[in-house]
Task: inverse folding
């Protein structure tokens, strides 16, 4: 057994969408801050963005404001959301879209050089390589060290203070100890809590990333962090068997969503994300 | 269109021009980039633990963030960290790696996969999974809790031959921890809201009393529920 110890100003746990973007912003703010990204897989193809995505789902289209987005999200959550967080997030949506475009993401544009939107909140992209774009941007940063294939399991605690984290290599018998002044947890959500809708050899054919197993939540829970609204579970409405997105068919191609009686069920029973799951 | 769906059309010959595409719901997930589950954070994206920040799907209170919202939160967290970093001084800590070593020494009659399926089945049947059309009752939740307690005890004894086994053991234990908290949250909201995502058979109606956040903290391995007003920190 080998033990490796690291010290840094900042430890980022999880090199996914949030983790990598945070590293980019930190370097921009102060290139003297040294950062370690500890990633369970390999940042080039890890987490939800591993296989790419075909749209940026949160964007403020023309004629709308960040407040509209925050209002929409609050309503979709039937009032159970933090308006302060929603608003400060919404205010940056178009700004971060510009940044990822500058880094190389292809966003589709019309003849007037405007983004092609789907509804007012969604822009169409060629996003197969979105994760590689982020990974390449981070690799060029001198103050950022990337450690792939390390699974983080515990925070290091000094009373109520987090002073880093520990974990192990997913390949070799190496244990890791990271001490850091500040820690960013960005390990994504949790799949695999419930029996999946495919069994046997296909049981990892699920909507959410099968390797986001709720490590970040669990570490925080064990360390006594306060958690909110776990009861608001997410259930994805998808094409049967393939788990392909229904939005591409419904919004992209304009296919109608009907029930077995041929009724347009959304018109009849409601159109929030949870209502659509209820209707089927 | 997604590769899997295109292949299905090609292989079956049931092209979408002639045949309807069936749609259905997945099993439930906990994911703060779509719903509001996760760490309780302040506007700087700091958690309730000092010097720990959160962004993306792991952070709570801020649904519908997706990719760009995760970027936005990451930026805010980075800015908060950059502002604080020079004020923070820490003492070096080293974790006790015996916790990992123990799994190589353990003896177990069960495999990780067996316990994982046991956990998923208990959650499916008793905590509103896919086969139950996402519905649950308090009696069922209590059964889920009992089952999980047994599985948790068995999981402590799991045996690892290599690092991949150790990874799978930790993944199971993480999920058990999340499930344990989830069950208490499901019990605490005595109403039905977001039908589809949340249908409590004992309380089938929405109740305005529950215009509040159900929060929690683990204290001495017990989940303590904390209610917080919606206006808070607006
Ligand atoms: C199938 C699917 C399709 C989606 N499509 C879209 C879309 O079209 N448009 C859109 O805007 N949004 C989409 N989303 C949502 C979006 O992808 C997520 O909200 C976003 O990626 C969340 O970022 P994150 O950094 O929190 O998580 P992730 O990007 O998943 O990153 C988490 C990272 O943490 C790592 N990690 C996990 N556990 C550990 C551990 N213990 N130790 C170390 N590292 C760990 C993971 O390997 C991963 O790299 C989609 C999501 C899914 C699942």
Result:
């Amino acid at each position: 057994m080998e033990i490796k110890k690291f010290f840094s100003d900042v430890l980022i746990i999880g090199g996914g969408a949030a983790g990598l973007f945070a590293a980019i912003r930190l370097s921009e703010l102060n290139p003297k801050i040294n950062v370690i990204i500890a990633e369970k897989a390999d940042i080039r193809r890890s987490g939800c963005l591993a296989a790419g995505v075909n749209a940026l789902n949160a964007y403020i289209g023309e004629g709308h404001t960040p407040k509209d987005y925050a209002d929409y999200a609050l309503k979709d959550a039937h009032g159970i959301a933090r308006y302060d967080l929603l608003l400060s997030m919404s205010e940056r949506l178009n700004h971060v879209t510009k940044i990822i475009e500058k880094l190389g993401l292809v966003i589709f544009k019309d003849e007037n050089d405007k983004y092609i939107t789907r509804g007012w909140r969604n822009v169409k992209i060629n996003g197969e390589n979105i994760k590689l774009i982020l990974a390449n941007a981070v690799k060029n940063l001198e103050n950022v060290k990337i450690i792939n294939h390390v699974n983080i399991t515990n925070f290091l605690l000094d009373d109520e203070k987090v002073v880093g984290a520990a974990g192990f290599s997913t390949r070799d018998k190496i244990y890791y100890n990271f001490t850091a002044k500040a820690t960013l947890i960005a390990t994504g959500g949790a799949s695999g809590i419930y029996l999946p809708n495919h069994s046997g050899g296909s049981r990892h054919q699920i909507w959410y990333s099968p390797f986001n197993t709720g490590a970040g939540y669990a570490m925080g829970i064990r360390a006594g962090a306060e958690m909110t609204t776990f009861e608001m579970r997410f259930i994805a409405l998808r094409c049967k068997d393939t788990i392909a997105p229904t939005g591409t068919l419904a919004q992209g191609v304009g296919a109608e969503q009907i029930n077995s009686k041929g009724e347009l069920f959304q018109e009849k029973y409601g159109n929030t994300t949870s209502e659509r799951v209820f209707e089927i | 269109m997604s590769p899997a769906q295109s292949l299905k059309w090609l292989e079956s010959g049931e092209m979408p021009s002639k045949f309807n595409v069936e749609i259905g719901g997945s099993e439930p997930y906990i994911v703060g980039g779509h719903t509001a589950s996760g760490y309780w954070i302040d506007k700087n994206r700091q958690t309730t633990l000092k010097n720990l920040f959160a962004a993306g799907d792991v952070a709570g209170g801020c649904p519908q963030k997706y990719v760009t919202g995760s970027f936005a939160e990451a930026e805010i967290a980075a800015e908060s960290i950059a502002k604080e970093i020079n004020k923070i001084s820490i003492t070096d800590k080293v974790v006790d790696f015996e916790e990992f070593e123990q799994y190589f020494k353990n003896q177990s009659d069960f495999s990780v996969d067996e316990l994982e399926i046991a956990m998923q089945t208990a959650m499916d049947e008793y905590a509103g999974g896919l086969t139950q059309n996402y519905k649950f009752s308090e009696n069922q939740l209590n059964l889920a809790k009992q089952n999980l307690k047994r599985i948790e005890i068995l999981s402590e004894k799991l045996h690892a031959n290599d690092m991949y086994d150790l990874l799978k053991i930790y993944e199971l234990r993480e999920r058990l921890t999340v499930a344990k908290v989830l069950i208490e949250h499901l019990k605490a909201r005595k109403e039905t809201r977001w039908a589809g995502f949340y249908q409590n058979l004992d309380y089938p109606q929405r109740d305005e009393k529950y215009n509040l956040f159900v929060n929690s903290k683990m204290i001495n391995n017990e989940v303590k529920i904390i209610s917080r007003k919606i206006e808070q920190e607006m």
Remarks:
- The radius of gyration of chain A is 20 Å.
- Chain A has a mean pLDDT of 94.
